[in-house]
Design goal:
- This protein is of the alpha/beta class and 521 residues long.
- 43% of the residues lie in helices and 19% in strands.
- It is built from 18 helices and 20 strands.
- It has helices at 11-18, 49-66, 71-87, 89-100, 104-129, 165-176, 191-202, 217-227, 237-250, 272-284, 304-316, 336-351, 384-387, 403-411, 426-434, 448-452, 471-476, 499-519; strands at residues 29-34, 39-45, 132-134, 142-150, 153-157, 180-184, 210-212, 230-234, 253-257, 262-266, 294-300, 355-358, 374-377, 394-400, 415-416, 418-422, 440-443, 461-462, 465-466, 479-487.
- The protein has a seven-stranded mixed sheet, sandwiched between helices. It has a six-stranded mixed sheet with strand order 7-6-5-8-9-19, sandwiched between helices. Strands 3-4-20 form a three-stranded antiparallel sheet, with no helix packed on it.
- Helix 5 (104-129) packs parallel to helix 6 and helix 10 packs across helix 11 (304-316).
- The chain is globular and about 85 Å long.
- Bound molecules: nicotinamide-adenine-dinucleotide (NAD).
- Nicotinamide-adenine-dinucleotide binds at residues 157-161, 166, 184, 186-187, 217-218, 221, 234-236, 239, 242-243, 257-260, 291, 389, 391, 417, 460, 465.
């Protein structure tokens, strides 16, 4: 028996949010559970493929009008949204915690992220979307201008672990670029996105521009990907492959933000206390249910003992419990399936000879899906823990003889999402970073430095994804670029007569142009 606190959001309020999903007619409902005690807290419609097609069609109609809004009017919606999110922070945190079971500080990270993303794109969208003059084929005679048009309707398929960031932050650049959205949130966490949708409408977003369809991924994925003009998927690598296949069949452009087995490297000159505190944050934030969290640590033998002791001590200092306040460091896992996966990874490792330095137990006394922050050592390649993403609060600790060995082993993974490097010489850390096959590297930080640098691209190499979010690219991927080239004089094709002379002239022209371009600064 646990004394899990009851959800602070009323069933009536959740029912109000569920009404923002408008299926074509009455549908059976999909129950949504609170991981803290596994109770059903609300229901949303179990949408069908026809509901998705209707949502895409409504979004397309509304999007046509939205795309004609002056950019400053679209920006104003997100500027208001930024302020409103921060003003109503606490009630949003209640919703996020209710359906994810995460600790409040982890939920806060999402709210700050969504507000920062709204601010960033509100400040930068105008300039990024403004048409730009490019160098024409023949300078002065050819005028070339690059334009960016909205793609139309963007489909967003998001996971449960960061239901605000990965649904709403991801929608912000797409909307600012003049697109409409059809979002399919995860089955387990639809209310956070619906809460944000309600707020966006209050901030001035026209009603049908942002649609949410709730229901099962395998049923709704296909019609969504077929109907939209771009699909942004965040989730597991396995489902990412299915989404990519479907997108390929329909020639729908897509970006895929997928899984990771992220390494942390502690170099021989690292401050072990700082590195241990950073590692604890990087391994156990959101109970390890974070795509960029760190599941492998490679520590140089020169500092291995001190680092291990500090890591174990810091990990044991974490508080694990349920609570709709800031009193606990680590919250619950999402559900039984994930708990069983985490347990099986640790059990398999222990059976094959690994050692648990701390943790390694489920905590049913706290709630049905709690699992202790866990450090495992003596992990060998035949253990599942070695290279499969656990997506829970479990990290493997390896000792290495050199920095080169750390880099080699860090790169020996199918994934390439995020990494963290700890050293007292930041330049050395940056040199190591350049040798790591991952999309983001944090030097003397775990993951937040790269994620929160919204001006810089974020995404995965190898099996961790295709494409990037954040920065200019994270906005322009939601546009079709169009080049309009206007020829001021003559044609760029050979004349009917005198082709030999034309060939000599064109060749000379290219030679001269190369000289000039080399001389230009
Ligand atoms: P998941 O792939 O099981 O589900 C993600 C979404 O896809 C859900 O909305 C689900 O309903 C939907 N879906 C399921 N089957 C589908 C199908 N056949 N067609 C279309 N959509 C379908 O992932 P998850 O378990 O919810 O999330 C955890 C995974 O996501 C981890 O691997 C994690 O690393 C990854 N993730 C990656 C990032 C990133 O930015 N790279 C961020 C968060 C999570």
């Amino acid at each position: 028996m646990t004394n899990a606190p009851s959800a602070p959001v009323s069933a009536t309020r959740l029912d109000e949010l569920a009404r923002l999903v408008s299926p074509l007619d009455d549908r059976p409902d999909l129950p949504v559970r609170a991981p803290y005690d596994d109770s059903v807290v609300g229901e949303v419609p179990l949408c069908t493929p026809d509901d998705v097609r209707a949502a895409v069609s409504d979004a397309r109609t509304a999007g046509t009008e939205w795309a004609t809004w002056p950019i400053e009017d679209r920006v104003a919606v997100f500027s208001r949204f930024h302020d409103a999110l921060l003003d109503r922070r606490e009630s949003l945190l209640d919703v996020i915690q209710t359906e994810t079971g995460k600790a409040r500080a982890d939920a806060l990270e999402e709210v700050l992220d969504a507000a920062a993303t709204a601010r960033y794109y509100a400040n930068h969208a105008d300039r990024a979307l403004t048409s730009k003059q490019r160098t024409g084929a023949i300078p002065l005679l050819t005028k070339a201008v690059e334009h960016h048009h909205p793609v139309g309707v963007v489909g967003i398929i998001s996971p449960w672990n960061y239901p605000l960031s990965l649904s709403v932050s991801e929608s912000i650049p797409a909307l600012l670029a003049g697109n409409a959205i059809v979002l399919k949130p995860d089955e387990g966490t639809p209310f956070t996105a619906l809460w944000a949708l309600e707020l966006l409408r209050e901030c001035g977003l026209p009603e049908d521009v942002f649609q949410v369809v709730t229901g099962e991924g395998p049923t709704l994925g296909d019609p969504l990907i077929e109907g939209v003009d771009y699909v942004s998927f965040t989730g597991s690598t396995d489902v990412g492959r299915i989404v990519a296949e479907t997108a390929g069949r329909h020639l729908t452009a897509c970006s895929l933000e997928l899984g990771g087995k992220n390494p942390l490297l502690v170099l021989d000159d690292a401050d072990v206390e700082k590195a241990a505190r950073g590692a604890v944050r990087g391994c156990f934030a959101n109970a390890g249910q974070l795509c960029i969290s760190l599941e492998r640590i490679y520590v140089h033998e020169a500092v291995a003992d001190d680092f291990r002791d500090a890591l174990v001590r810091e990990t044991r200092g974490l508080t694990l419990d349920a609570g709709y306040d800031y009193d606990h460091d680590v919250g619950s896992l999402l559900d039984r399936e994930l708990l069983e996966k985490v347990e099986s990874h640790v059990e398999d490792a222990v059976e094959k000879g690994a050692t648990v330095l701390t943790g390694g137990r489920a905590r049913p006394d706290l709630g049905p899906y709690f699992y202790e922050p866990t450090i495992v050592t003596d992990v060998t390649p035949e253990m599942t823990l070695a290279d499969e993403e656990t997506f829970g609060p479990v990290v493997s600790l390896y000792e290495v003889e050199s920095v080169s060995e750390a880099i080699e082993r860090a790169n020996d993974s199918a994934y390439g999402l995020n990494a963290s490097v700890w050293t007292e010489r930041t330049q050395r850390g940056e040199q190591v970073a350049a040798r790591l096959e991952v999309g983001t590297v944090n030097v003397n930080e775990a993951y937040a430095a790269a994620w929160a640098s919204i001006d810089a691209p974020m995404g995965g190499m190898k099996a961790s994804g295709i494409g990037r979010r954040h920065g200019r690219h994270g906005l322009l991927k939601y546009t079709e670029s169009q080049t309009v080239a206007t020829q001021r004089l003559g044609l760029l094709s050979p004349p009917k007569r005198g082709k030999q002379v034309w060939a000599e002239g064109a060749t000379l022209g290219l030679r001269v142009w190369k000289r000039i371009s080399e001389a230009l600064p």
